[in-house]
Structures are given as structure tokens and as C-alpha cells.
Amino acid sequence: MPSNGEREQWGSKIGLILAVAGNAVGLGNFLRFPVQAAQNGGGAFMIPYFIFFLILGIPLMWIEWGIGRHGGRFNHGSAPGMFDVLWKNKLAKYFGALGLFISMTILIYYTYIESWTLGFSIFSATKLYFNETTADAMRNFLYSYQGRAVGDHFTSLLPAYLLMLVTFGLNFWVLYKGISKGIEKLAKIALPLLLIFALVLAIRIMFLGTPNPAIPENSVWNGFGFIWNPNFKLLSNPSIWLAAAGQIFFTLSVGMGTIHAYASYLKPKDDIALSGLTTAATNEFAEVVLGAAIAIPVAVAYFGLNETQLFAKAGAFDLGFVSMPLIFQKIPLGAFFGSLWFLLLFFAGITSSVAMGQPVVAFLEDEFGMSRGKAVGALAVVVLIAVQFVVFFQKYGFLNEMDYWAGTFGLVVFALIETVLFMWVFGADKAWAEMNEGGDFGIPKIFYYIMKFVTPVVLFVLMIWWFIDTAIPTLMLNGVADQDKPYYWGSRILMVALAILILLFVKKAWGKYSNKNEMLAE
Amino acid sequence: MGLTTGGIIFLVIAWGCVITLTIYCFNRVLKSEKK
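^ Those are the sequences you sent over. The predicted structure of the assembly is below.
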């Protein structure tokens, strides 16, 4: 909160929607979704995907907007304070601390990944990788940039490190400028631009047809077929449904505490229903329409189905930073399209990363009365110390561990807690009234029952399944090379340290409250 | 292989739903901003 006591506000509804949509639209829309769809039943994947959009994605979107705006009435711009007003129990604020931990931890490593996209857009424009014409060579280019291998172009981590600093600098600058002059302004520029870039790329790719007539099966349309041709047999496999639930979860950026933070700057009678739905629709447009029309179709056109499947299995980074650069070297104006692709990813990334910085900034402003500059400065100190480990130990898997606990498992835990708190502890009727207050349309009544009964059950099942299927093996370091294990433990120690730091700050903030109340009482 | 009939149907339905929803939402948002 600014030192004059007035809470910041969004400049316009469109600005807010673009900001929350920017939070949701990220690298996953363009890299994760197409791979998930292609590997989990193709067009048939859209059946569980759409179902979970209705019973998980949209309900959580509205719940988080509701919790956020409600907390904002009490000048709480972050989850600890928001949970405290929902549930008058000493523990509430500590559950809310998860919203600070998750967003800050993801900020640390996500921004580093975002800096790669900035780097690669420069490398595309300057054609720096344009002689790396095989997958191995291009992978080596990426790895040498990341300090994981020795290469011709990068002899040290210095370029990656400098680009990381520039990217963090940009993020902190936007956060420092505040809600409307920083975040909203960025969203109004970056989101339309990234959608235009994606549209240009998608249209260009659609006209590629069959680049090599001698290999007619390598075509854009076979790429579309890979994503969209339905394989209904796979629907009987529970893992397809889990993959769809996971994708909906990640794509809408729920469970991080970021949507709450943005919504806290709404006025009590500002609309949530239409704004939340519009945000989700924008994200789905970026994902289902644009995201599905770029990386996979063009990869199949140039490399064929089998090799594209290998790229997809190897992960999002291989698809985005290996396969795509190889393609840009082959197409006319490849430098231009390459820059466009990586700038699109950069804009998608930065609109998400600033959202991840906002909860901690708001917490320090609202609960400690810090100025925005000091709050951003404090966040910057912690984040820039923590990111050193991510940059220098990335090759040992340091980042992977953070991505799992904060960026995967933590999300579903937080989402379950907030849903139960809002719909059961605070009360479904009060929560429903809050979400519908000021609405430009009434949320259909069926969602009352979905949010109260269906969403928590789905989240619980997801959490238990992921706990058994992935959390336990991750905890036991299954599949991790012995020489990497100390770094995985280092990552855990860092996360525990961050969690303790946050809990101490939350405790201190409420200590200040109770002292203030005692003084007022006297 | 290309896009099968099933693939075309799923693509058209998915794109149709998403594009319709997006246009509908933004149309309503812009109208409410004007008010």
C-alpha cells in the first residue's frame, strides 16, 4: 500500500484482464500443451481437457478472484492476510504463506528460463546459431549457453548470467512502477503483441505445407493430425485424465497466489464473473488455437512424426530451444521468424513472472507498511541471492527440484486448501455472494455445487495421485544420478530456508498487528 | 495420414468454442467499459 494509505487500483478492466491473462499465458501454452495433447490421445484429449476446464479451471479462477477481492477490502494483497480474514484461526495466515512461498520460488527459476528466451531472440536476429544444423549441434549450443557443455559460441556462463540480470532488472522495474503504471502497462503492450506474433507464426506455418516434396508425409497437416486426430482408446487410461487435469491447472496459473494478488486491487463492487471468464478464455485462445498451431505442426513438417515425438518426449525445452531454431535456419526470413518466436515466449514469460513477484511485494507493502521501492528491493535481494544457485547448478538439476515442489505439487496443495477455506470454512453462501458481487453476469448456479463439492474432490484425488505417482519418487530421488543428488538436496535446503524466512516474516507481521491492537485498546 | 475427419471435427469444435467464448467475453467487457 502506498505510504499515503490509498490502495493502488487498476486503470481499466481491460488492463486488469490483460494482466491476469498475461499471468496465465506462458511458455506452457506454446510448448507444454501441444506435447500433452499429442501424447495423450490427440483430439480425444480435448474431452477431459474441456471437462476439467469446467470443473477445475474456471471454478478455481473465480474462487481466486473472489478470495483476492475479498482480501483487498481489508488491505491484504497476499494470501496470508486473505486467509486470515476468511478463517479466524491463528494457523490461517501460515497456510496463506504457501501462496508467498510458491510464487517467490517459481519467480526465481522461471525468470532465469525467461532470460533464455530473451537471449535466443537476440541469437535469432544475429543468426548466431545458424550454423548449428543438427539436433545434437543445436542442443550443444543451448547447453553451452547454459554452462552445461563446452561449445564454440559460449566459453562461460557470462552471457547467460548477464541476460539473467537484465531480465530480473526488467521484472523489478515493472514491479517498482506499480499496478497500473507497471504491470498493467506491460500487459497492455506485451499481451496483444505476443498474440499478434503467435498469429503471424501460425499463419506462416500453415502455408508451409510440405517443405520437402520428396517426403510428403512430412507436412504441416500431418502435424495438425498428430495433435487433433482422436484416439478414443486412450480415454480409458486414467493417466490421460490426470494429464488433462494437470494441464488445465498449469495453464491457468491457479494455485500460485498470483491471481489473488491482482484481484486484491479491485474495488468491492468490481466485476469478477465476467473478468475471470474472459481471462480464462484469453488463455485458452493462446493455448488451443495458437499454441497448437505452431511448434508441433512445423516440427512434423520438417522432421517427420517420429523425430517430433522424440523432441516432444525430451521435453518442452527441446521443442522450443532445439527443434524450433533448427527450423528457423531452413525457412526464408528465418532470423525474423526466430526472433518473433522467442520474443513471443519472452513476452509470455515476463507477464507471468511479474505476477509471481507481486504477492511478496504486496505482503511487504500491506503488512509492514514498506514503500513499493523498499518492498521490491527486499524481494530483489532474496531472489538474486537464490538465483545464483539456479544459474550455476542448473546442469545438476537444481531447478528441476524447485519446479516440482513449488511449481507442480505445491500448486495443487495450495488450491485444495484455498477451496476448502473459501467454500467450507468461510462458507459457500458467503463465498458465492462474494464472487457474484458486482458481476456483469450471474455465475450459473451449478458452479456453486461444483465449487463446493466437485472441485475439492478433484483436487484431493489429484493431490493423492500425484503424491503416490510422483511426489514419493521425487522425494526418494529416483532416477537422479548420484553426482547430482547433493544439488537436489541443496535445492531442498534453499526452499526450506525460503519457507522459514517467509513464515518468520508472517509471524512478525501479525506480531505488529497484535501490538498495534493492544496500543489502540489502551 | 493428415487430419482425419475426427481430427477436423475436434479441431473445428475446439477452435469454434474457444474463439466464440473469447469474442463473446471481450465484447461484453468492452460494452461494460463504455457504460
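Chain A touches chain B at residues 12-14, 17, 42-44, 46, 50, 217, 219, 221-222, 224-225, 228-230, 271, 274-275, 277-278, 281-282, 284-285, 288-289, 440-441 (CB under 8 Å). Confidence is low (pLDDT under 50) at residues 517-522 of chain A.

Shout if you want it in another format.
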